[in-house]
Amino acid sequence: MNKRKREDEVSHIDSQRKVEDDGCVCNIPPCHLNPILFKDYLAYESHITTNHTFICQQCHRRFPSNSILTLHIDENHNPFLKIKQERGDKVFRCIESECSKVCRTPKTRRLHMIEKHNYPKEFRFDVINRGL
Questions:
Q1: Which residues of 93-127 are buried (b: 16+ CB within 10 A; e: fewer)?
Q2: Would you say residue 106 lies in a domain?
Q3: How many Å apart are CA 77 and CA 56, to the nearest integer?
Q4: Could you tell me if 82 and 119 lie in one domain?
Q5: Domain final residue, candidates 14, 35, 51
Q6: Contacts (Cβ under 8 Å, ≥6 apart) of 62
Q7: How many domains are contained in the chain?
Q8: What are 57-97's pLDDT values in tens digits?
Q9: CA 56 to centroid of chain Cα atoms
């Protein structure tokens, strides 16, 4: 259930960034197997934000935000929540951080998100389990 803070991520990234005369090379896993050369720092930073931020340290899946990553960790890697779920307790929190709704099943959370928060029916609610 490790979750790295953004500041830790930046220092980790800076320690693994190799600056070339003509750009930056990403050596962060899994890019280290086939390093990518970026012509400028903005392209490199965009790559880092897209590919190396909000990563689950247990299953190495990538998520669109810290709140989705936190839900993923709780629902997929937290043994205490698994026990609560097996007992029939409500464990599936609303995706919206300001909402305190907790549901018994992902299906009821999905319906809540569509009805109360106007999420489109086509929204990929499985992003919590599968990542991007």
A1: bbbeeeeebebeeeeebbebbeeeeebeeeeebeb
A2: yes
A3: 10
A4: yes
A5: 51
A6: 51, 54, 55, 131, 132
A7: 2
A8: 888 888 888 888 999 999 889 999 889 988 889 999 998 88
A9: 6
* pLDDT (tens digit per residue) in 2-28: 554 444 444 344 444 444 456 788 877
In a domain, 95, yes or no: yes
Q: What is the pTM of this model?
A: 0.61
Rounded to an integer, what distance in angstroms lies between the CA atom of residue 48 and that of residue 52?
5
Answer whether residue 31 is part of any domain: yes
Provide the residue range defining the domain that includes 86: 78-123
Cα separation, 93 vs 120, in Å, equals 18
Q: Determine, yes or no, domain membership for 105.
A: yes
Q: Would you state the pLDDT for residue 114?
A: 92
Biggest alpha carbon–alpha carbon distance for the chain = 59
